[in-house]
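[Automated response] Your request has been received and processed.

Submitted sequence:
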Amino acid sequence: MNAPQDLPDPSDRQALLAWLEANRAKAPGHAPVRSLSEFSAAQSRRMRNALVHGQQSDVDRERQGPPRRSLSLALDGPPVRDHRIEASVLGGWLTALQTAVTSVAHALDDQRPTHDSGPVPREIQRATKLFSSAVFPSSYGMVLEEAPPEAQQELPDVAAGESLLDRAMSTLLDLTDRAESGDAAEDAVLAAALPLGRRAAGHLAQLTGVVADADAGVRLTWQSPHAGLRSSSLSSSGAQRCRETLRIAEFAHRSDILTGTVVGGSKVRGTVEIEVPRRGVVTVRADREVTALLSAYANRTVLAEVMITTARSPLGREHHSYLLIDLDLAEG
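Generated structure:
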């Protein structure tokens, strides 16, 4: 404790402020913030710690049940001033985000080739619904949580391991990472979006368009019991690059029969690798029922009916995505 003679005259405002500045030292690693950027970083750390470690009583935890998946986001740039954001930008972003997440989840669900038309199934809408939670200062930030568990039980095993929402968020963060990957960003973005189909790509273009039009930036942090903690940032220029790439890409679909040898695959990634004469090794997306039986097809000649989606990047490179429709052993 400071001795009385060390205290400044309370009537001397400047001396009092100087004394407070000199004596507000904190424990190591907790230095006082001295700028808006340091304040933003400190608040983001506190929110991440709250998401990871929790700051609730045992009673609150028991009442709320197991931890929910959550997405913390922080918007910055011209639309954000003094931790306030234009309502039109925030509303547009949240609407586009929810639409894009649901659309991507639909595209990832069982990898069916009918995702570009018709309504999104209601159970997928419920399983990917996001709710606004605590709001915290960054530049402008908030937390979105997944729906309560009872709203997701229509999808099997949604609470065990990786959920459809986890996969959708992982795909979204893959896209934002690739949009900031440098000179080859356009091709990387298109390669990530191509397997999702035209509709999901259009919704992702709308989402990144909100950021680009507002000349803003956004930091996304996904927290999940399965996936842990993952963060990604998207700048205004990256958002513009992503939007234009997805806007001008023309998706074309055709079916084909591939005859070749199964040389590999991954149950985790949901892929089968088929070596086709004069084409080389083709990676085909397949549902888990097929990838679980990879050993039965290994090194054997197969007939694979596939749906091929093709799109051309702004740099002129043609990208192909293969989706397995049917797989049979070749006769003889």
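Summary generated for your ticket: Residues 55-60 have pLDDT under 50 and may be disordered. The chain has two domains: 36-248, 252-329.
If you did not submit this request, please reply to this message.
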